[in-house]
Structure formats: structure tokens, C-alpha cells
Design a protein that fits this description.
By secondary structure, this protein is α/β, with parallel strands linked by helices. The protein has a single domain, classed as Alpha-Beta Barrel (TIM Barrel). Helices cover 37% and strands 12% of the residues. A ten-stranded mixed sheet has the order 7-6-5-4-3-2-1-8-9-10. Strand 3, helix 3 and strand 4 form a beta-alpha-beta unit.
């Protein structure tokens, strides 16, 4: 396990997010099948300008200095992006970036990013070969360009993170993906689970049962590989991890020790890679800012809660009635509301919203039946 970094401090998610995602632009040359942003080829003239960007970074830094991720679209479509990165680094903010593998990614740009202090570079690879990856990314040559850029990154000695969206197009190739991660010498494999928003479609998603299978596979893989693994839009992976640990320790679900495992999962620790000390969820330790300053619980939950041009980010995050609801698992509905793992997991609020139109409803792609419901059903059968 990587040693804990002093940069990260325990935080109250009701007051401060652990991570801030800022969509600096929606412009992008790719046409990815799952694109949350429904990215366009040209920049929006309404984007936050450089002075507004600096003011936003000042606000972010003041909120217990969370992680800041520059995303898009393709962040490198902004000519002033590295100036924004440099300003954030000089303010003491730890930043990373998720650019698209386009001609914008040159060795010169990557070297400048390293020189201004970018802490990590993340690329997306959604298949172990160009046929699968390029189909998913909607652009021929994307895979080869990504590998070329990764080679540049290794030459510069920058840490590499790979993001992968799990879908029906690559679920049968996960072993090959794992081998590719080893070959590419990644420090972190960030595995996303599709939410049908933007260009993402229900038909591209894996089944609830397959979610469970992939979670169990990831847990086993995480114990043997040389890199770390984190998941996104897969809150129920935390439940699977705790269940697997309890089984390995032969802890019964009625034991005090199991309650301690649950408590550990709800508080947790943070490592040097900057993974959350406890699981984040939409609006709960996590906040998203659009290219025009609109604020959302996440990029996958399109319910606007404010705009940084009109209101301080801290005020939006702490006082929004919607965000307060999202931070209270006891308000969740259906099986998520009675699940013993709700304070650890909570289900994807964005996937619940995409499926039902209600961000407090149950995670629709979770197969787990909470103990309270099983107990009630059992009692009903004998009544």
C-alpha cells in the first residue's frame, strides 16, 4: 500500500468536497459513444475566462484544498489551459488532467505540463486493441495516438493513469485490459461504469449481474497487480469489497467485527495516490463545474444546483438543498434507503436519476438485497 500523503486531510463532506471536476471546455475532436458532455468541435464563447478561472481556483483552494481535475471535452482545446494549471499549482492545489488523445497531445505540451507542475496525466483506453478502442471512441487512429502519447509520458517520467469505461463492448476483454495496464506501467487504473447520460445509451451498458461479476473480478485483481485500482459510478463496488473482506476474515454479518468493517468502510483511510478517505458520491465529497460555470452534483447527474458566476462555490456546495439531500443516505428510497451498506455505498445517484428521474431512488444496477428486506420477506413467508 502506498504511504499516506500529508497533502490529504480528513474532511467533512458536508463542508468540503474531496474532489472537484472542472469541465474547462466542451470542445473536442473525438466522437466517443459514451460522451457525457456530448462534446462539440468548437469552443463555447461563454466559457469561464482566465480571470474567472483564477477566481474559481482560489475558491476551490479555500475549501480544504480538494483535488482538482481538469476535464472536457478536451482540456487542451483551451490555449490558456497550462497557464490555468500553473496558477493552480502555485496556489498549492494538486491537479490532474484528462485530455483526449488528439493531435493536441504533443511531447512539447506534455513537457510544459510537467514543468508547470501537473501531478498526473490520465488517458482513456477502452479496449486492449485499436479495433475495440477506436470503435468506442468514434475515431480511427485514437488507440495508436494514445499509445504514442503514453510513450512520451514515460520518457518524461510522469505518472500515468488510465481511465476505462466498462461497457458491453469490452467486458469480454478485461483480462487483456489488465495485462495491458501492466505493460503500460500505470500507477492507477480508473474503471468507470457507464451511466446513460449524454451520448451514453442503456443498450451499451452491462447487466446488473455483470456489474457484480466485474466488481468481484476487480477485487481479486487488486490484490495481485502492481498498480492501484479505483472505480467511478460504481459505489456498490465498496459493498462487494467489504463483503469479500468479511468472508476472508470469516466474519459473520451479525458479529461486532462486521459492524467494525462497515464502520471502516464509511470512514476509511487515504493513500498517496489521492483516493478518497471514504467513498464519494454525486454531491457527497464530489462536485462538478461546467464550462460555463454551472454546478452539478457530478457530470453524470444533470441537476443544476448553482453557478459560480452568481454564487461562491463553497456556498453552493454547503447550502444547496439538493446537495444536502444527496449527502443524507437515510433519505434514499427503495432498497438503498434500508440497505445496511447505504452509508458506505449509497448506490450511484446519477444512475438512479438516469433510470427513474429521481436521484434519491435505488441504484438500478445493483443485485444485492438488503438484510432488512430479506428479513421482512422471510417473516412474511411465515405469517
Amino acid at each position: 500500500m502506498t504511504q499516506q500523503s500529508p497533502f490529504f486531510k480528513p474532511r467533512d463532506y458536508h463542508k468540503d468536497p474531496f474532489i472537484v471536476i472542472w469541465e474547462v471546455t466542451r470542445a473536442c475532436a473525438l466522437k466517443c459513444l459514451h460522451c457525457r458532455a456530448d462534446a462539440q468541435y468548437h469552443r463555447d464563447p461563454r466559457e469561464l475566462n482566465f480571470d474567472e478561472a483564477k477566481h474559481l481556483i482560489d475558491q476551490i483552494q479555500s475549501m480544504n484544498n480538494p483535488l482538482l481535475v481538469f476535464t472536457g471535452g478536451d482540456p487542451l482545446e483551451r490555449e490558456d489551459l497550462l497557464d490555468i494549471v500553473q496558477y493552480a499549482v502555485e496556489k498549492g492545489v494538486r491537479v490532474s488532467m484528462t485530455p483526449s488523445a488528439t493531435p493536441n497531445v504533443t511531447k512539447e505540451v506534455m513537457k510544459k505540463a510537467k514543468d508547470v507542475g501537473l501531478s498526473r496525466w490520465a488517458f482513456s483506453i477502452d479496449g486492449p486493441n485499436k479495433e475495440i478502442h477506436d470503435f468506442f471512441r468514434g475515431t480511427a487512429g485514437s488507440f495508436d495516438r494514445t499509445i504514442e502519447a503514453i510513450n512520451y509520458l514515460h520518457e518524461l517520467g510522469m505518472p500515468l493513469q488510465i481511465n476505462t469505461v466498462i461497457s458491453k463492448y469490452n467486458i469480454d476483454y478485461l483480462e487483456e485490459m489488465k495485462e495491458l495496464m501492466e505493460k503500460l506501467n500505470v500507477v492507477l487504473w480508473s474503471v468507470f461504469f457507464l451511466v446513460p447520460v449524454g451520448r451514453g445509451q442503456d443498450k451499451d451498458m452491462i447487466s446488473p449481474a455483470d456489474h457484480e461479476k466485474v466488481f468481484r473480478w476487480l477485487y481479486q485483481v487488486s490484490k495481485t497487480v502492481s498498480f492501484d485500482i479505483k472505480t467511478t459510478a460504481a459505489q456498490h463496488y465498496r459493498r462487494v469489497v467489504l463483503q469479500q473482506k468479511a468472508r476472508e476474515q470469516k466474519i459473520g454479518k451479525d458479529d461486532i467485527a462486521f459492524q467494525n468493517v462497515l464502520s471502516e468502510g464509511a470512514t476509511g483511510t487515504v493513500d498517496g495516490l489521492g483516493r478518497a478517505p471514504k467513498g464519494v458520491n454525486d454531491g457527497n465529497g464530489f462536485i462538478f463545474i461546467s464550462h460555463i460555470g454551472d454546478v452539478y452534483p457530478s457530470g453524470l447527474l444533470p441537476v443544476k444546483v448553482g453557478n459560480v458566476r452568481l454564487q461562491p462555490l463553497s456556498e453552493i456546495y454547503r447550502e444547496s438543498p439538493i446537495l444536502k439531500q444527496l449527502r443524507d443516505p437515510d433519505q434514499y428510497k427503495g432498497k438503498c434507503g434500508v440497505c445496511e451498506f447505504r452509508h458506505v455505498c449509497g448506490g450511484s445517484r446519477s444512475r438512479a436519476y438516469a433510470a427513474t428521474g429521481d436521484y434519491l431512488e435505488s441504484e438500478p444496477y445493483c443485485v444485492y438485497i438488503p438484510r432488512a428486506m430479506r428479513k421482512k420477506n422471510k417473516q412474511g413467508n411465515f405469517s
